[in-house]
UniProtKB/TrEMBL annotation:
Cofactor(s) named in the record: FAD
Protein name from the UniProt record: Dihydrolipoamide dehydrogenase
Residues in FAD/NAD(P)-binding domain copies: 6-309
Keyword Oxidoreductase in record: yes
Family, as annotated: Belongs to the class-I pyridine nucleotide-disulfide oxidoreductase family.
Ranges in coiled-coil conformation: none
InterPro entries linked: Class-I_Pyr_Nuc-Dis_Oxidored, FAD/NAD-bd_sf, FAD/NAD-binding_dom, FAD/NAD-linked_Rdtase_dimer_sf, Pyr_nuc-diS_OxRdtase, Pyr_nucl-diS_OxRdtase_dimer
Pfam families hit by this protein: Pyr_redox_2, Pyr_redox_dim
EC number: 1.8.1.4
Residues covered by the Pyridine nucleotide-disulphide oxidoreductase dimerisation domain: 344-449
Keyword Cell wall biogenesis/degradation: no
Length: 458
């Protein structure tokens, strides 16, 4: 092979691309990892890691305040929080990630990769050839609304990478990015206004989750404006003014536009294969792109589940599929990414947290399932010990025909660590009768599992 010939070429060096490439390299295939920005991708430098680093100190302070006898200060040390955030991003230096990639046997190619024909990828004029497969793992980019007057604004990148606390911030959008960044910066001392077009934020979750998050945001001083669409933007001496459909104008030193994301298929050459730029690449459960037997994709770019852990899961399936095909081209025996359909776990790292897996009640009914819904306040010995005045709710959605869980939602302080038990129950199709024998430890918040099953009638 020449320096431009590989078995597999992976376009996109974020966590998804890294997982796919590491899998094929471990299977003995010569693999190139093409990245235009930082190896490690969005999650490492502008999303999961820095956002949670900004959120965690505020959560720790709030948790301490809920337990009498714990000495706490009046406010966070913003400089220390930002410095710790910088540590998690390696100060936006990817040399450590490159070292890992090369140690895993990957060839890191810097530049913007673009499909340039069958099994061919152009990287800033250099053409690479793959004998086996090309894998697209380019992720997603912010979806920016067409607002009159929209000039300078923050996206999630600027919000997670800001070098100082904004004096004031207007957040447009009530999804995960919107609520997390509103709370993070409010707890660091910014005056924050969150604008939501619907009745509540987090519209894809159970309604009670969004309601509890609103309570938490307002307790932190965030002004939450619901039922208001943005209709225009103007520049002021102090920053930006957002004009709302209600006739009100809200202003801040910065405007964070958090109105969703779309697949990063721009300037990728997908049109040559019958796909549209900005739209998801359709894949089967092995990650193979529809109609192109050598092209694979994983992560946000497929539009399936825009979550790092799900993208990495899909990437592992893709990598295994490619290696299995190389070793044995007979009918595939590889794992496939079926969890994307029914068992996607997600955490919103606000305070209170929201932890959800599977289907909401509405989604389950839309799927034609005969479901029974059990709702409870999280009020057990473990939650009382965890925090004075603990407020939380739990919902269990049961498929009555199979007597298995199809959806679970927890909302409350520190509920995220209970989510994997729910994920296992759904993936394993554990019946409620069998789940009754999974005894929760006392006194923990997990005792709510027993209360849910008792409410079900076991």
């Amino acid at each position: 092979m020449s320096d431009d010939d590989f078995d597999v070429i992976v376009i996109g060096g974020g966590p998804v691309g890294e997982n796919a490439a590491a899998r094929t390299a471990a299977g003995g295939l010569r693999t190139a990892l093409v990245e235009a920005e930082l190896v490690g991708g969005e999650c490492s430098y502008w999303a999961c890691m820095p956002s949670k680093a900004l959120l965690r100190p505020g959560h720790a302070l709030a948790a301490a305040r809920r337990v009498p006898g714990v000495p706490v200060g009046d406010a966070l040390d913003a400089a220390a929080v930002l410095a710790r955030r910088n540590g998690f991003t390696s100060d936006w230096d990817d040399s450590g990630q490159v070292e890992w990639a090369e140690g895993a046997g990957l060839t890191v190619v810097r530049g913007r990769g673009r499909l340039a024909g069958e099994r061919r990828v152009s990287v800033d004029g250099r053409v690479l050839t793959a004998s086996r497969a090309v894998v697209v793992c380019t992720g997603s980019v912010p979806r920016i609304p067409d607002l009159p007057g929209l000039g300078e604004y923050w996206t999630s990148r600027e919000a997670t990478a800001a070098r100082q606390v904004p004096t004031s911030l207007v957040v447009l959008g009530g999804g995960v990015v919107g609520v997390e960044m509103a709370q993070a910066w409010a707890r660091l001392g910014s005056s924050v206004t969150l604008v939501v077009s619907g009745e509540r934020p987090l519209p894809k979750f159970e309604a009670f989750a969004g309601d509890l998050v609103v309570e938490g945001l307002r307790e932190d001083g965030v002004r939450v404006v619901t039922g208001a669409r943005a209709v225009g933007v103007s520049t002021t001496d102090g920053g930006t003014a957002l004009e709302l459909s209600t006739g009100e104008t809200v202003s801040g030193a910065h405007l964070l536009v958090a109105t969703g994301r779309q697949p990063a298929t721009f300037d990728l050459g997908v049109e040559e294969f019958g796909f549209r730029a900005g739209e998801a690449l359709p894949v089967d459960d092995t990650g193979r792109v529809s109609g192109v037997d050598w092209l694979y994709a994983a992560g946000d770019v497929t539009g399936r589940a825009l979550l790092t852990h799900q993208g990495k899961y899909a990437a592992r399936a893709v990598g295994t599929a490619i290696v299995t095909g190389a070793v044995d081209p007979e009918p595939w025996t590889t794992p496939v990414a079926t969890a994307d359909h029914t068992a996607v776990p997600q955490v919103v790292f606000t305070d209170p947290e929201v932890a959800f897996v599977g289907r909401t009640e509405a989604q389950a009914r839309e799927a034609g399932l005969d479901v029974r819904v059990i709702d409870l306040d999280i009020a057990v010995a473990g939650s009382s010990l965890h925090a004075d005045g603990y407020r939380g709710k739990a919902r269990m959605v049961v498929d009555e025909r199979k007597r298995t869980l199809v959806g679970v939602t927890f909302a409350g302080p520190d509920v995220a660590e209970m989510l994997h038990a729910a994920t296992i129950a759904i993936v394993g199709e554990v019946t409620v009768d069998r789940l009754w024998h999974a005894v929760p430890a006392y006194p923990t918040i997990s005792e709510v599992w027993l209360r849910l099953l008792e409410a079900y009638g076991l």
